[in-house]
Amino acid sequence: RFCAICLGTMRPGHGHALFTAECSHIFHFHCIASNVKHGNQVCPICRSKWKEIPFQGPTADVVHGRSRINPLDCPQEEGWMRILHGMPLPRASPDSGQQHNPVFHASEPNTFNDDEPLDSSLSELLGRDYTESTEGLTKTVEMKTYAEFPAVLASENCDSFTVLIHLKAPSATSRQGQRNHRSVFQSHHERAPVDLVTVLDVSGSMAGTKLALLKRAMGFVIQNLGPSDRLSVVAFSSTARRLFHLRRMTDSGRQLALQAVNSLTSSGGTNIAEGLRKGSNILEDRREKNPVCSIILLSDGQDTYNIAGGSQSRQGPADYQSLLPVSIRRSSQQGQAQVPVHTFGFGADHDAASMHSISESSGGTFSFIEAENVIQDAFAQCIGGLLSVVVQELQVWFECTTPGVIINSVRSGSYASGVSEDRKKGNVDVGDLYAEEERDFLVDVQMPACCTTISTMQNEFEVLGVGCVYKDPVLQEHVNLDVNKVVIQRPRTISPQQKIACLEVDRQKMRVKAADAMSEARGLAEQGNLAGAVCVLGNQRKALSESMAAQGEDRLCIALDAELKEMQDRMASRQVYEASGRAYVLSGLSSHSWQRATARGDSTDSGSSVHGYQTPSMVDMLMRSHTSFISSGGQRSRPTRPPIKPSRSCRGTLQAR
């Protein structure tokens, strides 16, 4: 028997008082007492009105496990009441006495083209409400360019000159346009709806607290999806099964989804490839498509069916690409629109290298869930982004219009970039952006000495022309931004003021160099050279401390130093590196390469120094997660790991502020 409010089991003698209502429906006492304390006297299941209601008095009256008060301080999920009204209790099978729900035992179709149709009325409202709510707001991507120096001597052949291209997505409409009590996630008509598939590890190692916290985290995700969003859940262990088809998260959709998640049990091995294959097929076979789609993959172990030896194998590098479905690999190789797989490594025993490889190849991010009770926050941060996509198919292009100027390189992290054969044109394929998300790309160019034939009035010199085009996912319209010209001075003499480098360019160069150092250190650590890895990170901390941005106590530089120091500590010994260092570093590399927030260590805590790239929508969702977790009786704790001795850097480091 299950409580229809919290979906937990109800068995006399298991420490939970039970309440039997006049209509014969039974609930956990603490669940129903919370429901009626505000005057609600209606049964959540059959909607009959009660004459007698549970009363939390000063003394207990326990008879055969049934009580009129809750003798324990048990977690409560009051927010689920609105969703669970009318949910039927699972029926027991007359044969086995076990709980049985045909949804979870039905045979699967050969093709997953049974997705619930999109609501056409919602689609019409989507565009109309979006247009009305964005009146007077900046709805386009903000693009700025910065030259490394304001001037270069006219007589100088400049072999390397950096231009920074900065992009910022528009705000979510309800954050600025309608400051009522609705959040961006409740304003479903003002954002692009999502098709989401969660692929969840339910192998034997997930038993107990891990599975309970996973169910809680999935409950939070389900609560925050809107009626135009669609969800499907795949559970995998030795094999994989789809719990329900891709369906809209209406009230009834949420009820079924919660019931399905609550039915999960743990057993068997870990077949990540099979889970991903099924999740990918759900999206590939769907008849209709929401503008945004994604897969969330969570696992606490290593694939024991497709990868021999995991990331620790001494027989050579593991073929992690074999874990990716063919459709995702094909779109990645052909440069087509991808289905991003956001991966979450749970605990110390997951295969961080495989999870990072899966996310990197698909355009997703890799998060490291070190402390078990952070899983809901990690999911919250991820869906906070997915539920605020305001830009799609973003392409940035740039062109050298002045004779003699050519492109040396483009630093775009994991974003695909290209330079034409004559090195006069280049581009970066950015893809989706969340509300108020920012991207920074560095273009290094070579400039000739300036002569009268290419100089203009007032010694102005055009280095680059930059533009971009993208699709508005709500209106399904393409937007072209005006070309932004990067112009500097080419005087015969340079003033002291003109020799000062641009602070924005300097800080982004430090970010890229820090990411390079992390990658180099990771390579050394995998080779067993932990001392060398720590030294590389220490050298970068020293260079960072001497930068102009760090001297001005720039927040990005402070955060980078804190992250580099944390990585040094997690490389202090082989034991520490194997337990948490590898996963922490790979999650950091994922974050910096995509310039997108990932969960690692205490990064989801508001007081953490390492929470780069978080958007306001992510922060809002994290606050909701914190509030819901604390109100349900949960306690947050920092991640634990083996004792760490402070690492000895081979150079001085930036002092903690």
TrEMBL record:
PROSITE patterns: VWFA, ZF_RING_2. Residues 3-47 form the RING-type domain. Residues 195-383 form the VWFA domain. Residues 629-657 are annotated as: Disordered. The keyword Zinc applies. Transmembrane segments: none annotated. The keyword NADP does not apply. It comes from the Eukaryota. Keywords: Metal-binding, Zinc, Zinc-finger. Gene3D superfamilies: von Willebrand factor, type A domain, Zinc/RING finger domain, C3HC4 (zinc finger). One of its GO terms (molecular function) is zinc ion binding. PANTHER family: CALCIUM-ACTIVATED CHLORIDE CHANNEL REGULATOR, ZINC FINGER (C3HC4-TYPE RING FINGER) FAMILY PROTEIN. This is Anaphase-promoting complex subunit 11. It comes from Nymphaea colorata (pocket water lily).
